[in-house]
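Private note to self, pasted from the team thread so I don't lose it. Backbone tokens:
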């Protein structure tokens, strides 16, 4: 009998009971707005900001409405202006170039390697074209951050890190988001903490943080934030920084705080599932695994593999066959965007020259979520299904 997987690729774990209780308390007192506080009360958002700053080792953290909002705010806070060019990954998701275009700036795409990280040779070649890099650690893959920062420092490029897929990850022990001037994170449902929507911005820079706080919609209540730059810094920026409201509320912060306390354990659980699928797929004819460097501490909340140089029809056949057996794969090589999946030539508001080397990689990327609602046995079954269907199509192509 042909095995089928009957689980859901979009079903998340429930919110921890502590988070549910804290959310109910917020709803009972009704002070959902982060600045609507009782006398002497810090509020859930301010407490979350302090806890998240401590978790990643940052001086400041700002909780906001989404990861995309965090990126747009970071760009404005470091001084990006309409018409400026901003470097970013060709392999990423739409909110990354969207945040650049939303600030009125122009995305300049940098290629991707077969290890699914930014092409540092291409970055070196394009280093003179922009003063800011929005670096996306796409699908949790971290490049050689030492070399990247050396390139950017030498060229005077400010680095903002998109860590939507790397909360809890690190390069050589340094938490993701702490190499560049600003780190941005997401707490959207499919990320490593779940508040439906939400995000963080972290930095050690006083002025960047003060501008970000004003941009987020603090009015003149910035002293109620969880991590606050000196008053003298706000005095310099508060009258010239626009309010682009995107605050997190106390309800979302309440359900996130218990998740943050458990994050390291959740990351270990994701990695166990990742390794189970990886072990099951390794050695499949025609399928290339993405090897993780020793310097990277990753969080395997999704897994990718490459069907390099396969005909489009053959890749589509694998996707369809796996779907028929209950396994949902996403393909970055399709001619049209599907769901959350798109690529640099999909974003017609940001036209780019073709990048043949990157196009070859993008056409071969197959991607799969690994929800924590999957068991290790589920992951082994999923790997068997993928291995069987890739192998069947590979043999048909060879015949």
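Design output:
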């Amino acid at each position: 009998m042909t095995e089928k997987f009957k689980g859901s690729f979009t079903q998340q774990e429930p919110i921890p009971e502590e988070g549910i209780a804290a959310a109910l308390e917020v709803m009972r007192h009704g002070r959902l707005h982060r600045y609507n506080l009782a006398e002497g009360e810090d509020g859930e958002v301010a407490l979350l900001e302090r806890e998240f700053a401590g978790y990643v080792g940052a001086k400041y953290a700002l909780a906001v409405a989404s990861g995309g909002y965090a990126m747009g705010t970071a760009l404005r806070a470091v001084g990006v202006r309409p018409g400026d060019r901003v470097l970013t990954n060709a392999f990423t998701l739409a909110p990354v170039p969207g945040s650049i275009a939303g600030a009125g700036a122009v995305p300049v795409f940098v290629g991707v390697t077969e290890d699914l990280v930014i092409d540092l040779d291409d970055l070196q070649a394009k280093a003179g074209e922009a003063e800011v890099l929005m670096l996306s650690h796409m699908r949790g893959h971290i490049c050689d951050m030492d070399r990247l920062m050396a390139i950017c420092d030498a060229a005077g490029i400010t680095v903002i890190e998109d860590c939507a897929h790397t909360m809890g990850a690190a390069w050589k022990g340094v938490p993701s988001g702490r190499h560049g001037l600003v780190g941005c994170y997401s707490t959207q449902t499919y990320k490593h903490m779940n508040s439906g929507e939400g995000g963080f911005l972290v930095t050690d820079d006083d002025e960047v943080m003060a501008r970000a706080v004003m941009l987020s919609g603090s009015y003149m209540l910035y002293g109620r934030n969880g991590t606050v730059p000196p008053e003298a810094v706000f005095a310099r920026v508060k009258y010239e920084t626009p309010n682009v409201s995107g605050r997190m509320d106390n309800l979302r912060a309440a359900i996130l705080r218990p998740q943050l306390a458990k994050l390291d354990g959740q990351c270990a659980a994701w990695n166990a599932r990742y390794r189970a699928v990886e072990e099951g797929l390794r050695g499949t004819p025609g399928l290339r695994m993405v090897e993780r460097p020793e310097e990277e501490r990753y969080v395997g909340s999704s897994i990718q593999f490459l069907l390099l140089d396969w005909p489009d029809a053959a890749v589509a056949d694998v996707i369809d066959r796996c779907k028929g057996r209950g396994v949902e794969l996403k393909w970055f090589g399709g001619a049209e965007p599907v769901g959350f999946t798109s690529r640099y030539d999909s974003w017609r508001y940001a036209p780019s020259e073709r990048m043949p080397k990157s196009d070859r990689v993008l056409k071969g990327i197959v991607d799969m979520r690994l929800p924590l609602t999957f068991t290790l046995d589920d992951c082994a079954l999923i790997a068997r299904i993928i291995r069987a269907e890739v192998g069947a199509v590979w043999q048909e192509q060879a015949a």
